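Ticket opened by: R.M.
Priority: normal
Category: complex prediction / small molecule

The reporter submitted a protein together with magnesium ion and asked that the result be attached to this ticket for the collaborator who will pick it up next week. Submitted input follows.
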Amino acid sequence: MIRKFISRVLGRKATASSGQPAVIAVVQHGLQRDQISRGCQRTIATLQENGYQAYVVGGAVRDLLAGLTPKDFDVATNATPEQVRHCFRRSRIIGRRFQIVHVNMGAETIEVTTFRGHHGEQGGNTAQTDEQGRVLRDNVFGSQAEDAARRDFTVNALYYDPTSETIVDYHHGVADLRQKTLRMIGDPKTRYREDPVRMLRAVRLAAKLGLLIDPAASRPIREMTDLIENVPPSRLFDEMLKLLTSGHAVRCVTRLREEGLHHGLLPLLDVILDQPLGERFVMLALDATDHRVREGKPVSPGFLFATLLWNEVLVKWDLLKSRGEPVIPALFLAMDEVLDVQAEKLAITRRIAGDIKDIWALQPRFEQRSGKRPYGVLQQPRFKAGYDFLLLRVESGEVDPEVGSWWTDFLHAGDEGRAGMLLPQPPGEARKRRRRRPPSGGGASVTE
Ligand code: ATP
Ligand code: MG
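Result attached by the on-call engineer:
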């Protein structure tokens, strides 16, 4: 009822079922040309001057309508990649599976994509799928209507033309956004089967935009979470990272839990969220990350994943120590085990895995506050990340607050102040170190 009313108010010219999109005027949608970046406006103007259709598309239109600042501006056009490239001197074709063109406009890079065609039944362009129905190849050009139909949610299928300041809307996306509904285009089950990552996107976009997932789209998720296992680990990693650095990670994770989706859907969050200390730590870390993102500060994926996995490391570390493994080797073993398990599902890159380990490996060293050792810790390249990590451990109740404030003071003290802060050597420490040195040759020897 309300939807119909809003549709009428928005001046829809025809229904989507007739194949004709609504063309919504600026007085109705309110989006001004100046809200689009300069580079994007120029790219579109050039394509149009060359006789092609060109629109701002996807997340940027959606975010602007929702009052958010878009991350970037993407353009969709009926020109082929070759044709696009001929329109711009500073442009190049990238991607093999589905070519897109990067157009350089001053400091901006605009991604220009040719309308993609329909996969599946229509037009004989049958997409290749795996046994579960996941689309493996999806690389044919098509019409604007087909391009709209293959997008995931109605709010993501809006085309804005800065020249006429109109929005072309095939799937009632503007109305859905007004009604705060995230609605899938087509049959949700089929769309999740084609690409299980859409389940994660649903949760992330709903949290980011403050939308409610349409029940038809949220209901099937519970029974389909297993499909996530078929997604290539590198893609899952990218999507997890997007979710965690969306600026709304706490809301995303809370949503996932409310819907019972954190099991299986996010392997990383299994176990962790079911342990009180682990949950507190993860939520604190995500909250801190959300604040950083919203302030426009960079966040480090290594730090983020280090926090998410820390509780698992602690559990494994304790187990190994209880079996008589020395403290530091036990930690390194635990770290490798935890990262190996994750590597099966998430392709954590080598560089990020290195960052994660550096942060973890620093933690026991914060307990050494006598002799020269604290100075060595300060010199570590990842000291700042390790120290921030320590403060989160303090905040979550895992570490004595006195340790955290000691390091804060030590960090800010001058040379003399620092010397006065050092704790007395534990009894026997100096002797043990002296005796040990020749055979062990240093390294990460810790004696407590
Ligand atoms: P954000 O950039 O805020 O993370 P987005 O919706 O812009 O969100 P992108 O990955 O940049 O996400 O995708 C751009 C557009 O491509 C989307 O708005 C949507 O129309 C389409 N799209 C992206 N991923 C999918 C998918 N898995 N299935 C169908 N369409 C998709
Ligand atoms: Mg985007």
